[in-house]
Design a protein that fits this description.
Blueprint lengths: L1 H20 L4 E4 L3 E4 L4 E8 L4 E8 L5 E2 L6 E4 L2 E4 L2 E3 L7 E2 L5 E8 L8 E5 L8 E6 L15 H4 L14 E11 L8 E8 L2 E10 L5 E9 L2 E8 L2 E9 L4 E7 L2 H9 L10 E3 L4 H9 L21 H21 L4 H20 L1 H12 L18 H8 L17 H5 L4 H4 L5 H17 L5 H8 L5 H16 L19 H6 L6 E6 L5 H10 L12 E8 L4 H7 L6 E5 L1 H11 L6 E5 L5 E3 L6 H18 L1
Helix pairs in contact: 5-6, 11-12, 11-13, 12-13
Length: about 625
């Protein structure tokens, strides 16, 4: 009897230990997801039992494209990695082709999760472009990341300012101390950003190093209000756009959990709106008011397919855009946004109307291409043409304030876009002083960036309504002069002095007898940068050969500062061409986009090879070219 009691007691004790370690917590419906590097995969349910953890997955993806779940997939629970055991509705390591609906469901089974674990992470653990979801809640009561406590309470307030910040026109330094809420070191070690200044995009695709807590510091010299876009950490999207004023230092908190909220929205959840970032500084309250307001589209969507029909007469086109402008204006007035948010939305709407007029020829050409085969379709000179009379321009000018300084705070339809054909309004008898000055400023700034600023241009800027323009361009000229004296600038090979249609032949001529791979790229092209990174290791392995020459051609649409920051890490010969030069190369080979590759044999014969965007074809084509030319020698 005594032994029986001990046996029963021991059995009960073991059951208590084992059964409470993996207990059945039931089902968590539509679990909260803290952050995710994908909008395509989400989980609608988690089943927790003492024998398994089952994730119910939903994927929203393009019809007739394939997805896969690798056998390397796992969940991380309490520091332990629990590898996938099985899948139902999808076969592991196999291509699954998406149905016409673009939606599919399947389940993934893993070992049981300990009972004291409150969140799990999921990852496919692939080297590139894998799916990762952090902080999948198992309690039904998710909390906020701890760094929210660092954000000043006044920035978290639902109260919005009523004071309009005005425009700071000056050239001065700016410092942004960046803090990422919900950051994990596994996400990535740097944060990518773009900087837009009044004369256009100045820095593209650059990055700042992050410390282990997710802090970084941005410092630069800006002219006038500028937009700092922080776009991503690794594969985790951020997309925040702070307005910077010259001469200030601001604190900036970016919310990495916005990626999780977006993931849950795509799976069909109704997620309460919350700002993606919080910032101090002159324009912080304005951006906070905009984020708390309606995030609907209140500007003319002029770049969307089907915005206009190129068959429209100028009068029909104006009737259309003015009608849409009036309807959107009524929507702004009827919205429950704060007065300061309404003012900014109205400013953007008015700016979009101005750009819809100045960019009408481009909008017509866009519509022609869409209806006649695509972006590479040539547009006959008289097939998509639109011109406005002075009376028609004055009609539009009567609907907006052409000289509204608030335009200088805009990102979309901002100063750079407004500067295009800015002088046409004055020529039409409308008072468009601001737009004409922006046109002169932008042209002079572009000249300063390329080292071609003339004394006449600078003197013309000094006669404008504010000394800011001349001061800013002088600063840009001096900055560019310093940049061009850098070591990176020495990597740019001087462009041969030949006619544009002979330029490519002149570039490859010194390398006759070798295989030349010409890569057309630009700093702003994400696929270009990704392909360069993917192809680079081949130079140390299969394509390591003195018989192969790597030539990289960008154009002046790549901001020089970003360009010089990138090319030291791109092994090859670098050329930076002017618009008419790159245009001749594009026309010769029918370039349909970038990256674009031109493969030149030892005999100097050049062939356009857009198919080399496929990494395996890229490698094989170059190997075949080397082998073919070797056999013919």
């Amino acid at each position: 009897m005594n032994n029986l009691f001990k046996t029963v007691a021991l059995t009960a004790m073991l059951c208590t230990v084992s059964c409470t370690h993996f207990n059945n917590r039931g089902t968590v419906e539509r679990p909260f997801i803290e952050s995710a590097n994908t909008e395509f995969l989400s989980f609608t349910k988690v089943e927790l039992t003492d024998s398994s953890t089952v994730l119910h997955a939903v994927v929203h993806y393009f019809p007739d494209y394939w997805i896969s779940i690798p056998s390397s997939a796992a969940i991380i629970a309490g520091g332990d990695t629990l590898k996938i055991q099985s899948a139902d509705g999808i076969e592991l390591d196999k291509q699954f082709w998406m149905p016409d609906s673009g939606v599919t469901h399947f389940t993934l089974a893993f070992p049981p999760v300990p009972s004291d674990v409150k969140t799990i992470d999921f990852s496919t653990f692939e080297e590139e472009k894998g799916w990762t979801l952090y902080g999948i809640d198992l309690t039904g009561k998710p909390g906020k990341p701890s760094r929210f406590n660092e954000i000043p309470s006044e920035l978290l307030s639902e109260e919005v300012t009523t004071e309009w910040p005005g425009v700071v026109l000056d050239t001065d330094s700016v410092t942004v101390n960046i803090h990422l809420v919900g950051y994990r070191p596994e996400m990535g070690s740097d944060i990518k950003y773009f900087l837009y200044s009044m004369d256009g995009e100045r820095i593209q695709g650059a990055s700042l190093p992050l410390d282990s807590l997710g802090n970084a510091t941005f410092k630069d010299v800006i002219s006038g209000p500028s937009i700092l876009w922080t776009t991503s950490v690794g594969e985790f999207r951020l997309f925040t756009d702070a307005i910077l004023a010259p001469g200030e230092t601001i604190e900036f908190w970016g919310d990495m959990t916005a990626s999780g909220r977006r993931n849950m929205e795509i799976r069909g959840d109704s997620i309460p709106s919350r700002p993606k970032f919080y910032a101090t500084g002159k324009y912080g309250p304005l951006k906070h008011a905009l984020q708390l307001g309606d995030d609907g589209m209140y500007a003319l969507d002029i770049y969307s397919e089907g915005f206009a029909d190129y068959h429209m007469s100028p009068e029909e086109y104006l009737d259309m855009i003015l009608s849409r402008h009036a309807a959107l204006q009524d929507s702004i007035k009827a919205s429950d946004m704060s007065p300061i948010a309404k003012r900014m939305r109205q400013t953007e709407l008015d700016a979009s109307l101005i750009v819809a007029v100045s960019s009408a020829p481009g909008i017509y050409r866009q519509d022609y291409r869409v209806k006649h085969g695509g972006w590479s379709t040539p547009v006959p000179p008289d097939s998509a043409k639109i011109e406005f009379t002075d009376e028609q321009l004055r009609r539009v000018a009567g609907k907006v304030n052409l000289n509204n300084p608030d335009y200088l705070l805009l990102d979309n339809f901002g100063p750079r876009e407004l500067s295009d054909n800015g002088s046409m309004w004055n020529k039409a008898g409308a008072n468009g002083r601001l737009l004409a000055e922006l046109e002169s400023y932008t042209a002079a700034s572009e000249a300063a960036k390329s080292g071609k600023l003339t004394d006449e241009q600078l003197e013309g800027l000094r006669k404008l309504s504010t000394p800011f323009y001349a001061k800013a361009v002088e600063a840009r000229r001096d900055r560019m002069a310093a940049v061009m004296r850098s070591e990176a600038a020495k990597l740019i090979v001087p462009t041969p002095d030949v006619a544009p249609d002979k330029l490519l032949d002149a570039i490859v001529a010194p390398h006759k007898g070798k295989v030349v791979l010409v890569d057309l790229w630009n700093t702003w092209c994400g696929p270009c940068r990704a392909a360069i990174k993917e192809n680079d290791p081949l130079k140390d392995s299969e394509l390591s050969s003195d018989d192969i020459v790597w030539v990289y051609i960008a154009d002046d649409s790549s901001p020089i500062e970003s360009y010089l920051e990138m090319i030291p890490d791109i092994r090859g010969i670098h050329y930076r061409l002017m618009p008419e030069q790159i245009s001749a190369i594009r026309s010769r080979f029918g370039v349909d986009g970038i990256p674009y590759y031109i493969l030149v044999g030892r005999d100097g014969k050049a062939e356009g090879r857009p198919d080399l965007r496929d990494h395996d074809k890229y490698r094989k084509a170059i190997l075949d070219a080397v082998a073919k030319n070797n056999s013919s020698l």
